[in-house]
Amino acid sequence: MALKITDECINCDVCEPVCPNQAIYMGEEIYEINSLRCTECVGHFDEPQCALRCPVDCIPKDPAHPETQNALLKKHIRLTSEK
């Protein structure tokens, strides 16, 4: 399942540079996550780097985008083959 950034975001700029899929971008008010690019770091790391580094713990799983580990891995393969 993709992750999302909640309204508690303080725009600290920690999450965006650690995303290996460039899924995080600055929205109108806070950072946002493109669910089509978010793999929860599957294929890159053991855990999502953005959530790991977030100082306010505002990056939970997004129930609107449920995905299995296998689906996340397939997304990772698709994204890395685009490069």
From TrEMBL:
SUPFAM superfamilies: 4Fe-4S ferredoxins. Residues 1-29 form the 4Fe-4S ferredoxin-type domain. InterPro entries: 4Fe4S_Fe-S-bd, 4Fe4S_Fe_S_CS, YfhL-like. Keywords: Iron, Iron-sulfur, Metal-binding. The keyword Cell division does not apply. It comes from the Bacteria. This is YfhL family 4Fe-4S dicluster ferredoxin. It comes from Candidatus Doriopsillibacter californiensis.
